[in-house]
Amino acid sequence: MRVKTFLPAITCKVMSDMGIRRLHLCPAITVVLLMCLVIYLADLFHNNCRYGDAVNKADIRDPSLSVVASAAKKLLDEHPLLVTVINHAYLPLMYNWMCHTKRFQGLHDRLLVLAEDKQSLAQFTQRWPGVRSMTINSQRFSLGGQLPFNTVGYVRMMVLRTEVLNELVQSNLPFVLFETDFVWLRNPVPDFLELAFKEELDLVGSKSAVEDQIMCGGFIYFRNTEHTRLLWAEVTRKMHSLEDRMKFLKDNESAPKKENEQRYLNALLAVNYEGVRYGLVDYNTSVVDGKWYTNKILRRRTSPKAIHNNFLTTTREKIIRFKAFGQWFLKSDDSCDDEKLQHHPFVD
Questions:
Q1: Tens digit of pLDDT for each residue in 218-229?
Q2: Residue 235, class by beta-carbon neighbours within 10 Å (0-12 exposed, 13-18 middle, 19+ buried)?
Q3: pTM to 2 decimal places
C-alpha cells in the first residue's frame, strides 16, 4: 500500500515541477515506473539467491574438516561389512558358522545376512535376533529348497546374489563376501584387508585350486574403487545374459557348463579388465579350499585360518564332512553346542 500511495505522489510532484501536465501523463508514467520497480526488485532478489547458492556450494565445506571424511572412510575400510546370502537349504551351514565365529569379538556386529525367502529370514532371526538380516526376493523367479551346484536353480540363485553385490558395489560400499560352508579356525578377514591396502588392490580373494581359475568366488573383499565398480557391473551384465538363455529351463535341469559368476569374474581378471588390480591371500596360512579334507599331506604342511568345505554338490554332503572332521558345532535342535566349542582346539 505504501508503494501505491507514495510513489504516484512523488512522481506527479516531480512532473508538476518540470511543467508537465499532471492530468494526462501522470497515470501512465506511474504505471511504467511501477513496472520498472517490480523488475528491479525481482532481479535484485534473484541475484541475491544466486549469490547465496554460490556461497553455499563454494564455502559451506571447510577444507580443514576433510579429515573427518577421511577418518570415516578409513573406519569403513578397516571394518567393512561382512555379507552372505542364504536360503532355507543353507540355514544349517549358516547356524554352524554363527556358532563357531561368535567368539570373535564384534564380528557379528558387522554382519549382513541376505535371505532369499521370508521363511529362511524368519527362522534365522528367531535364532539370531540381534544380527542384521533381510530378504532379497526376486520378481523374476522363485528360489528355495536344495539347489545342487551347477543346476539352473543354483545359477539363478547366483544371478540374484550377483545383482545384490552389484547394488552394494555401485553404492560405494566396501565389504567382504563370504559363504557359510567354511570353518574359521581364526579370523582371516584382516589378511584380505592388509593385502588390499599394502598393494593398493581393488579386489582380494582366495586362491582357486581349479587349474583354469584364479580366484575362488566364496571369499572376496570388494574395495570401494572405480575399478571394482566397473568389473562387477560387467560380471552382472554377463550373468543377466546367462539368465536370459536359461529362461525356459527348469530349476533342476543342468545349467550351461563352465558359465557362472566365478568363471566370468576370473575371465575378466585374466585380462585385467578396466585396469582392475587384484590379489590372493596365502593358500597355506590364510584360506585353503576343500582339498584340505582329501589330502593328508596338505593338512600336515598347512596352517590355515579358514577352510572352505567345497568341491561337494549338496549341503548334506558338506554337513557329513564337517561332522567327520569335528567341525560341526550344532546340537540336533540347531542350537550351538557350547561344550564342544569350548573344547575344540581353535587357535585364536
A1: 999 999 999 999
A2: buried
A3: 0.78
